[in-house]
């Protein structure tokens, strides 16, 4: 940190965008750090006009990265969700999209030196425990962001960042089935509360009076639906052991419907009540997990493929994830998960927080 600015890299990670910092460039004290991040992003303000946030939860994100003391990891990654119109910074969840930029950022900052033409970076997920591995091209030790991989929600193509996950079960709640049941009834609606990397309340779209094929903009205009989603997640938060989640970004809610574009399941996700234009990575892993559980709500609506690759339909395309569970244990256990994302360095420099310069 300089007198009036902070070293920062802005990156797109998957379908999100955020500010990436070395932990050593931020204050150690979490309250001071969060205050600084609010001023960097420009919150609270619905337009984040006086900061570098993009006025949306998916573009108001922060990754804090440092060398890991854990011998099984190269770097530690702390994800922070900076609220847009409230002065709130939350570390209650992971972000699998921003994660796609963490490996490249670690190489850019010299925390990891790739050997050969690819980098394989082992990343400890500080928010929730668990580990991820990111594999991407780095010929001659330099990250190459160019490539032929397209992901729904991002124009053009870029280099694939292959993400593998371990120990994702119970990320924020301590259990794959945080309520201890595969099915709960809230407000008369059957839900499956699941946490395989992201706590999610899964319900059938038809049970909430929608088809599940509406656009995210249409859903955003349905005030009555958003109120019902909020009511579901507030009660589910308590059942899942998360307490009062009114000001928290988790649990998310996903409404499911039968696939209609060749996928395994059609989804409409709320983060936490605003409709997502797509679906988060670990959100998708958790929803697929729900769909694999016999007796769960999502299972009835899914067309499950052979094998472990699942194509999740969402409002703007598809997200493919790999999920493996062991259904022979009680409760079922998560074996592994994976996804392919892309990432890009947008700028690298010094950011000047509001109120930080004369
Ligand atoms: O679930 C949105 C996103 C996310 C999180 C959210 C994510 C994940 O689309 O792993 O990536 O659920 O708030 O970036």
TrEMBL record:
InterPro entries: OMA_tautomer-like, PrpF-like. SUPFAM superfamilies: Diaminopimelate epimerase-like. It is an enzyme of class 5 (isomerase). Its EC number is 5.3.2.8. Keywords: Isomerase. GO terms for molecular function: isomerase activity. Belongs to the PrpF family. This is 4-oxalomesaconate tautomerase. It comes from Nonomuraea thailandensis.
């Amino acid at each position: 940190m300089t007198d009036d600015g902070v070293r920062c890299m802005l990156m797109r990670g998957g379908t999100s965008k955020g500010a990436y910092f070395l932990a050593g460039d931020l204050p150690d004290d979490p309250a001071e750090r969060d205050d600084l991040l609010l001023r960097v992003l420009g919150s609270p303000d619905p337009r984040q006009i006086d900061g570098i946030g993009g006025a949306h939860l998916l573009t108001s994100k922060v990754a804090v990265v440092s060398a890991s003391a854990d011998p099984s990891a190269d770097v530690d990654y702390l994800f922070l969700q900076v609220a847009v119109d409230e002065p709130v910074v939350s570390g209650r969840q992971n972000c699998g999209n921003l994660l796609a930029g963490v490996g490249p950022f670690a190489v850019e900052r010299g925390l990891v030196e790739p050997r050969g033409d690819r980098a394989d970076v082992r990343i400890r997920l500080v928010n929730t425990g668990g580990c991820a591995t990111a594999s991407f091209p780095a010929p001659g030790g330099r990250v190459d962001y160019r490539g032929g991989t397209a992901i729904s929600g991002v124009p053009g193509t870029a280099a694939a960042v292959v993400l593998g996950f371990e120990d994702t079960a119970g990320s924020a709640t301590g259990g794959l089935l945080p309520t201890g049941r595969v099915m709960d009834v809230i407000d008369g609606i059957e839900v499956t509360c699941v946490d395989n990397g992201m706590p999610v309340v899964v319900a059938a779209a038809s049970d909430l009076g929608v088809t599940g094929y509406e656009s995210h903009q249409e859903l955003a205009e349905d005030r009555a639906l958003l109120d019902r989603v909020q009511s579901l997640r507030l009660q589910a938060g308590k059942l899942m052991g998360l307490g009062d989640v009114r000001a928290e970004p988790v649990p998310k809610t996903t409404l499911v419907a039968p696939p209609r574009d060749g996928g395994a399941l059609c989804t409409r996700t709320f983060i936490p009540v605003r409709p997502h234009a797509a679906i988060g990575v670990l959100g998708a892993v958790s929803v697929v997990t729900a769909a694999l559980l016999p007796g769960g709500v999502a299972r009835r609506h899914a067309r499950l493929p052979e094998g472990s690759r699942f194509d999740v339909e969402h409002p703007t395309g598809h997200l493919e994830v790999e999920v493996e569970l062991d259904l022979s244990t009680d409760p079922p256990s998560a074996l592994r998960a994976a996804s392919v994302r892309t990432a890009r360095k947008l700028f690298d420099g010094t950011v000047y927080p509001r109120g930080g310069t004369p």
